[in-house]
Batch of 2 targets.
Target 1
Amino acid sequence: MAKQSYQPVLLANVGKPESHTLRAYEAGGGYRGLRQVLREKSPQDVVALVKASLLRGRGGAGFPTGLKWSFLPEDHPGPIYLCVNADESEPGTFVNRVQMEHDPHQVLEGIIISAYATRASTAYIYLRYEYPLCLRRMQTAIDEAREKGYLGKNILGSGWSLEVYIHRGAGAYVCGEETGLIESIEGKRAWPRIKPPFPAVEGLFRKPTVVNNVETLACVKHIVDRGLEWFKSIGVPPAPDNPRDPGSYGPKLFGISGHVNRPGCYERPLGISARELIEQCGGGVRQGRKLKAVVPGGLSTGVMTADEIDTPMDFSGPLKVGCLGLGTGCLIVLDETYSMVDFLYNSCRFFAHESCGQCTPCREGTHWSVAMLERIRAGRGRLKDLELLLEIGDTIGIIPGTTICGLADGAAWPIKTAIRKFRGEFEDYIKRTNPGGYQTVHPVAWFEGNGSAGAGSAAVKH
Amino acid sequence: MSETTAAKRSDRPPAAERVLGDALRRRIEQFYPRYPTRRAVVLPALHAINEELGYVPLAAVAELAEMLGLTPAQVQDTLSFYGFFRQDRPVGRLRIMVCRSISCSACGGEELLDHLCRRLGIRPGETTPDGRFTVEFAECLGLCDRAPALLAGEEVHGPLNREMLDQLIDRWMQTLPAEPAGRTKAAVSPDTKSTAAAGDTK
């Protein structure tokens, strides 16, 4: 019950009348933090503060934000760019949309403070095309802030200037990858770059660049406002046995969708269990049905079984049950009526559609995985197909070291987790839909033995 | 040889016949100060052209390239990467995107897409012959809390069932009366702005 009394901070303004206007935002104490920062703190102070807070990026990878900022060269003549990743395209993820629609000034204040800390002179908000209301609200917020002197030349008399522009995407998932996003702003196809050099050294227009997620920047605003102690009083401290673990501090926005009674965006401390989120926030599985699987943080992270939902939703929790990580923290809940074959088909179809085509393992792997699942769904599946799918899942991505960006890892994890955790269901499906041929394990057997009758000859007829 | 070149030169349309009109050119030029390179203007410019014309024909690609000091291939390269821009003909006056990704699909999104296509007599990606509707599938629209959802112009609808979709279609049919083909302006549905703003809080 204590968890239910959690007072939201990031979502504090959501639901209030006119929450998207400057008037309402200032009435709630908005832009006070920015004034204070410009008056009292140097950019280095803000970087040190964010570094000490151990804030980790909310976009999916969970990289420590302060550390990312500290990679910027110290004496660079500029310009330095800040890119705001508002290309939220991960299936199941919609929390940045809620932030930008209902509290655009909170996001903007976070952007301005972060730009000050990183000494950026221009910030580009890379906003996905599919968010027209966010576009209007953010643009209005920028115009209002400029009029009040929070943006533009000589901000609040500090001598520091910043321009913020919105750059609209055009429906490509890979633009959410930070170097793909940079390429897209530069007016090219959004092909992720080989790293190093990392964007902090050579990014947008070959200048030092920081790319941060919307929610991360909103957290920066609150760290500045409320201080280190507040931020570190929420969440999970670093694991004592792992010196490299920066912990999971702070509030997090969790999106819950799929087969729950109350889908929506909820703010809770990092470390809350998936069960608590589903039952307390999401109102439980719809129509009292049984839970089958939960995607912990956007489709890329793979699936957890119903037995694994006591996993804490912090940056290391989902890793312990074989998922890719916390991801975006947006849960997709699937009940007992939904087929995992359909789930995996949907997942593979998405990643095949969104693969940018630059790296062969991803381009081919994602397309062949769809082809195999189409075959399985058409009643021509073989048990061998599951091994082939797993072979794709185990070999594409940054982690096996075969691709430039993490899109392929995102494609691989649903394959690996769905088949390994729900293997029985896949096998049943194949046996049920293809009773005669499911045992055929040598589809190309006719290459051997000149087509004479043999172990594989039955397969040829299929 | 010289004859054909001369013929080509005289074929080049005078300013009045250009695809990109003066107002649109000025709109594109307003993006210049935002970026240190002209090439970065490509995507915002393509959006501007697309809003104005409903599509980005090859002639517009060539004219944009000329404006920005790029080759047409550079512009086309960027354009073709994004599935968003049409090149053969304008999209319908109402562009409807139905989400087919996991949260929506698990809640019946693909059945909605199927039903919408049947009602309008087209397949995903096509435009009705009267130029009123274009239906597309979309990968995650970020409306998972409203699954199954669709985006029609700038209007968000969801969660939907078949009956609600039928009512929507009926409303669109009434608010978007058939017009003769050959319109130049691609508009979003006429009542989008007010409803989207009023209906965004669920």
Target 2
Amino acid sequence: MWRDAALVAGKDLRVEARSRVGVNQVVPFALLVLIVFAFALDSDRGTLASVGPGLFWVTVLFSGLLAIQRSFVIEADDDARDALRLSGLDGAGIFLGKAGAVAAQLAVLEVVLALGVVVLYNVHLHGAVMLLLTCLAATVGLAAAGTVYGIIAAGLRVRDTLLPLLVLPVLAPVLLAAARACEAALAGTPSEGWPWVRLLFVFATIYVTFGVVAFGPLLEEA
Amino acid sequence: MTTTTRSSRPVQILGWLSAISLALTAVMALVISPPDVNMGDSVRLLYLHVPTAWLAMYVSFGVTTLASALYLWKRTRSRFWDLTAGASAEIGVLFLGLTLLIGSIWGRITWGVWWTWDARLTTTAVLFVLYLGYLAVRKVPASPEVQARRSAIVAVAAFLDVPIVHQSVEWWRTLHQPATIGDERRLLDPQIHGAMAWTLLLGVVAFTLLYCWLLAHRFRLAWLEDRLADRHLEVAIEERRAEAGLSEAAEVTS
């Protein structure tokens, strides 16, 4: 299973690295969203700094949707999904591989966005441990839940509109928990943040488990 | 299973029972029960609000989850559970929409706002969009088996999310503001007036009967649609066969 996962993740990341869609489109889009927020909320730096964590995670969520859609668009061309089905790879392995690749891309995106938030919104970073754990758990949760719903919507004519409808309500608690945990870390009150970090880990565990179990049957019929 | 174009006798009786109990609830809620000391006449909205919420969140979505799980389990897999899950979710979304609407009107009168980010309201709103997504998945065309399995998995995944949503929203609100007073919890506490408690109970019974009646009808409709699709397929196959037979006959004679 792990070997299969590494193969699939390696393949996805290689495709992304060569197509450069992530670097040329998703990352600029994410930075653009940060700038658009600054226009919408007035450039008064106090406001932007105080709502920075929330805006950061909204941006990650929307850019993450693009990454998830990309992850299944590359399987749609040239009937690659059929090849994946026929490859004999373990369904759970394929899930972990695809989710892992999405998580890796999201992690890079989060680093870039964090720099953007620090520079553009004048946010000062505190509580590094909590910030890192929050990012880790939220990224795994986003990638896992996103991959489960990605395969459900993949191959449908309506996938571009169906995926956000399915995935955003499911990810609502991740957005809420990640934003609150980051706020707590930045405000220097970590005791308020730990329950949220735990919730993020619970979410990630549930959806990774669900994906491992359900991805095989879902791939069969996508 | 025999499903006809008309509803069966038990379903008709169920329909009458729910109609009578709904009428009784209306009389109790509008005439017999007294206005609330604090809320005045707006309390009467809650006789609709609480039963619709109970019906949508616990009964409908509970049945959808259970039926989806039974569909996914190989031993109990049958079209019956898939159609039941779909029918129940449709009723659930309808009644949850009504719950939000009635609650909103009541909130405007009592709190002075249409909406507040109270934990319970927020959970309900997220639940509403989760199941809208489920219904959207059910509407995507596919072969019946594929569609049924896909929908069942979405329903189970949505259900897994509910406790997390609830927990997160609960913390979110308690960190920022004290729990809002005046929600239905107060209505259900033991100091409630006798007639009010009875009206509420009757409302819950009436709406549960209504749910059963609607479910039976919605299920029957879905079942008939299924049969119709099968019938169209059979007819089409027969026609193609007939065409093929004709052309063969023509070849033989020529």
